[in-house]
Amino acid sequence: MRLRPLLLCSSLAFAGGLASVVERAPTAAGIDRIGAVVDRIRTTQRFAAGVADRCAPLVDPFGELGADPAVDEEFRARLRRCGYAVCRAPTPLAPVVDRATALLRDDAALVAAGGAVSLSSEGRSGEYFGAYGDEATRFVDVRFDGAGRPLPRELGAFPVDDATAALADLGFRACAAAGLDPALVDDPRSSIRGAVSSTALRLAWYDASDETPFDAHTDATFLTVAPFSPGLEFYDGAAWHAPRAAADDDLAVVWAGSLLEIVDATFAATVHRVVGTPEPRTSTPLLLRGHPAARPLGVPMQDCWEALQKRDAGEAADYLRARLE
User: Fold this and answer.
1) How many angstroms separate the CA atoms of 37 and 259, rounded?
2) For residue 247, what are the contacts with CB-CB under 8 A and spacing of at least 6?
3) Helix, strand, or coil here: 22?
4) What is the pLDDT of residues 56-70, one digit of tens each?
């Protein structure tokens, strides 16, 4: 079966920010701040795309976040310094990855899940849920409706609730450890959202390859949380990091997104890429975004997302001024 390649990186709404910026009206400083983030990301992406240097550091995973202030402080420092951190998940993630692999390799299950469905009826034309991809790369983006039920409805035997709970538990611990108010992040487990979630659980399968399925990019998230596995590399400004850790099925990697950089300039959105591996691999990242009604720097979420897609600060500022006048 060949799935229609509708989408490579979902255009997802997001929201959030520190309490001090949520209610504030849009200002020139806020527009300039978003533009500065766009410029920094684009510049870093251009440099990263031409860098061949790679390293494979052996990293020590962080222990339980939220239990020891010293561990949280070390995690926060690591995230600021390197853009990513390897952590112990509250529950083993290997079963989640195995069940995602079964779903993504099952043509009938993907047909039942349905193709990518647009949220344009909610005024979110760049957002989708459902299955997409091709024979070499297969994805299912899972969202959650206003009552907390998964979209798409048909996900076979995949344990969406268990997967979401395991990754969201770590994700919200990481948000708190990073100093971000977790109440501003769209919780996929919520049953009182009133709209389709902006946070998404992405099930991704990559066939064995020596190609790079996703080149240098950042995520429009506060944080992204994924089971730890080879195939994901992070750029530190000089070289690509392919972190290694002792084999363990309860490790996850957490990295910073562009929303976190917008609301807290001490963090930088992590430029990363997905590289080919000798064997097929599956990943199940949870992309933590904010509540659609929140307004970081006073800018509505959809407008903030659109601005982050622009080529440079000038284009982002022009777009925001036109939308907010």
Assistant:
1) 9
2) none
3) helix
4) 888 889 988 999 999
User: CA neighbours within 13 Å on the CB side: how many for 186?
Assistant: 34
Using an 8 Å Cβ cutoff, are 220 and 308 in contact?
yes
Token pair for 291: 């509540």
Burial track 194-219 (b if 16+ CB lie within 10 A, e otherwise): ebbbbbbbbbbbbbebeeebeebbbb
Distance (Å, whole) CA 263 – CA 22: 10
Q: Write down the pTM of the prediction.
A: 0.89
**Number of residues that this document lists for the chain:** 325
Say if residue 2's pLDDT is above 90. Answer: no
Contact indicator for 267, 80 with CB cutoff of 8 Å: yes
Amino acid in position 18: L
Fill in the DSSP letter of residue 120.
G
Report the distance separating Cα 296 and Cα 46, nearest Å. Answer: 27
Sequence-distant (≥ 6) Cβ neighbours of residue 37 within 8 angstroms: 258, 261, 262, 269, 308
Report which of 131, 129, 127, 128 is spatially closest to residue 104, judged by C-alpha positions: 131
Give the torsion sign (CA, 179, 183, 186, 188).
positive
- In terms of Cα–Cα distance, which of 100, 89, 264, 282 is closest to 179? 264
